Amino acid sequence: SAVISQKPSRDICQRGTSLTIQCQVDSQVTMMFWYRQQPGQSLTLIATANQGSEATYESGFVIDKFPISRPNLTFSTLTVSNMSPEDSSIYLCSVLSTQEGEKLFFGSGTQLSVL
Amino acid sequence: GENVEQHPSTLSVQEGDSAVIKCTYSDSASNYFPWYKQELGKGPQLIIDIRSNVGEKKDQRIAVTLNKTAKHFSLHITETQPEDSAVYFCAASKGTDKLIFGTGTRLQVFP
Do B42 and A108 touch (CB under 8 A)? Predict the structure, then answer.
């Protein structure tokens, strides 16, 4: 499976600031995604990171709040903008690997706490 | 749209016993059903998956069964060990649609 490196692994941020999370994959992948996992909850898809074009956002998520970059087939960033305590969650990068059929793999996540 | 329900939300078993987690899905066109294990402070790890053309799949101590008629699928862990303790998520999707995740089951295996 693809090796997915995500950083930072955790951060504590002040209200109103922004945090950029980086995701690096060890092989080229077509599909990359960003998920949010609120405390004790399941996984919710934020957006699909499209290489060379704007990300595709799910209902309830907007580009101004969660801008995403995908400059190439191995790297993506997610920014959480103008943070509030409600943004405290785990943010997960994931990739769709076609090496063993189409399977979704996750990075180790970024634990974000907003004070 | 697709909806996935997962039960139980918590499960406690004695080491060596079996554990079963069940999920139901709503969209009969769904054809891919993975299971993920998430340990504390880590991202979800894909442990087994099944596609709709198969009724059962095994990998050592874990197995997944699929009943397309009833639209439910289950994860079976035999001879449980303390290191099996984690949160388990089921998911479902059809074609290239996004995965829809269940609400998770916290499994505790007591030595």
Answer: yes
Q: Best of A7, A11, A106, A112 to disrupt the B interface by mutation (most B CBs within 10 Å)?
A: A106
- What is the signed CA dihedral for A93, A98, A100, A105, rounded to 10 degrees? 0
User: Beta partners for B20?
Assistant: B76
Q: Give per-residue pLDDT as tens, A4-62.
A: 999 999 999 999 999 999 999 999 998 999 999 999 999 999 999 988 889 999 999 99
Q: Determine the pLDDT at residue B1.
A: 80
Nearest to B102 among A42, A102, A103 (CB): A42
